[in-house]
Design brief:
The protein is mainly α. Helices cover 68% and strands 3% of the residues. It is built from 17 helices and three strands. The protein has helices at residues 2-37, 48-68, 75-94, 99-103, 105-118, 143-161, 167-189, 194-197, 200-211, 215-245, 267-277, 279-282, 291-302, 323-326, 331-364, 368-392, 410-428; strands at residues 124-127, 130-136, 139-141. It has a three-stranded antiparallel sheet, with no helix packed on it. A hairpin with a 2-residue loop joins strand 1 (124-127) and strand 2. The radius of gyration is 26 Å and the shape is globular. The relative contact order is 0.14.
């Protein structure tokens, strides 16, 4: 008994110490989880954004797999890896105060411009007649996606610090923002890449509108856009007359009219414009430039209300919709074919929830910089979704804009995750002053 009694206090003390360690670990885990989901000082963790992103990524990977299942393609594996990398970046950004972008916005913008300049060096990678990518070893990056981030941060920072009022007081800020967005647009057009340059203008307008720029500015810009649209339409008509006069095939005579035209447009871009307005002129048989669109419309129409079922679509799997575009530009066609009208509406509703959530968080931002960032990011997603889905349905010109979180592409996947990480940061740090 003495031996037992003598050992009991020592053993009990040892066990008690072990229990304190266990409870201490549990408390730290609970504190970590509380900080993650509730945040410091009740700031919280927005779950709507991550849920929407997760659903879209899942739909994208499944669609990429279905499109390549007949050929045994493995792009879905690469997409999964990029999504994992994007998730890590999302978490890293979400836990940092978004004010870091305000402090370092000029450096981010300069780095983005340098990457765009590197396109025109031997590091630039030429694909499909354009130099839009950088190759570093085995990694291929598209700098135009990063340029959206740099321009957005720099433009939001300028407007957050500027005094916006009457037109005369706002001219300096307006001029700076237009230059900030205009420089990357010019570099992207020189690649040439018209599609990637399209979101910049709506982003700039959204930032200026939210900042309270007078309506006279937007009336002037809309008038200018109408004039530019008229000039482009006249150029496309002159191109058509040129082809008709010399009996040229638009598919084989690419590059001839651009030598005599005053507009910096490529002939293939003119073909896309005319194929959208009057496809029978440039491709009467539907086997040339309008082939992808026609196959996309067949895929969307054949899907019906509920679709053919996962993995049972034929347009992409059998090669009617080329593999070069099936998994990126026209991936919504695959979704519509396999999951039908209901599946397409479901995807669009997820996007609507994601963008509405971004605007909700913009209204909750603690300062004007956070407000402008959240609105700008929401506009980026809105432009991409509208143009991509529109071109697969034939109601928008084909410009090569990817669908966020769904289209195949590493650079775009990572930058989309980064954007959503910023949205989460704005939400988490909305109550810190």
């Amino acid at each position: 008994m003495g031996e037992i009694g003598g050992n009991f206090p020592r053993r009990w003390g040892q066990n008690h110490g072990d229990m304190r360690v266990v409870f201490g670990v549990k408390r730290r885990i609970i504190a970590y989880l509380r900080a993650f989901f509730i945040g410091r000082e009740g700031m919280g963790f927005d779950v709507i954004g991550p849920v929407c992103v997760g659903l879209l990524v899942a739909v994208g990977i499944a669609s990429i797999y279905s499109a390549q299942s007949y050929y045994g393609g493995d792009q879905w594996k690469s997409q999964l890896q990029w999504a994992a990398l994007g998730t890590l970046l999302y978490i890293a950004i979400a836990f940092r105060d978004y004010k870091i972008f305000l402090k370092n916005g000029h450096w981010i913008y300069i780095c983005c411009l340098l990457l765009l300049f590197l396109i025109f060096t031997p590091l630039g990678l030429r694909r499909f007649g354009a130099v839009r990518w950088l190759r570093w070893g085995g990694v291929v990056v598209q700098p135009s996606e990063l340029a959206k981030l740099g321009a957005l941060i720099m433009g939001a920072g300028i407007l957050a610090r500027s005094k916006i009022g009457k037109m005369r007081d706002s001219l300096a800020a307006i001029g700076q923002v237009l230059v900030i967005f205009g420089v990357p647009v010019l570099l992207i057009l020189l690649q040439p890449d018209l599609g990637s340059s399209l979101p910049f203008l709506p982003i700039a307008f959204a930032l200026l509108f939210i900042s309270g720029v007078p309506g006279k500015f937007f009336v002037s810009i809309m008038s200018l856009l109408l004039i530019i649209t008229g000039i482009v339409a006249w150029d496309a008509y002159a191109y058509h007359l040129y082809l008709d006069r010399y009996q040229l095939n638009p598919q084989t005579s690419v590059g001839q009219f651009e030598k005599i035209s005053l507009l910096p447009l490529k002939d293939y871009q003119r073909n896309r414009i005319i194929s959208f307005v009057a496809p029978d002129i440039v491709d009467p048989k539907g086997t040339g430039i309008s082939w992808n669109l026609r196959q996309s419309l067949i895929a969307v129409g054949s899907g019906g209300m509920t679709g053919k079922g996962r993995g049972k679509g034929t347009q992409a799997r059998l090669g009617y919709l080329p593999q070069s575009v099936a998994t990126n530009d026209f991936i919504f066609s695959i979704i519509a074919e396999e999951y039908g009208f209901m599946g397409g509406i479901f995807v669009l509703l997820i996007y609507a929830a994601l963008m509405a959530n971004g605007l909700r968080i913009a209204c909750m931002a603690r300062d004007r910089f956070g407000l402008l960032l959240a609105v700008g990011i929401s506009v980026i997603f809105l432009v991409h979704v509208c143009i991509n889905v529109g071109m697969t349905l034939g109601i928008m010109p084909i410009t090569g804009i990817p669908l966020p979180f769904i289209s195949y592409g590493g650079s775009f996947m990572v930058i989309c995750c980064l954007f959503q990480g910023i949205i989460q940061s704005i939400y988490r740090f909305r109550n810190e002053y």
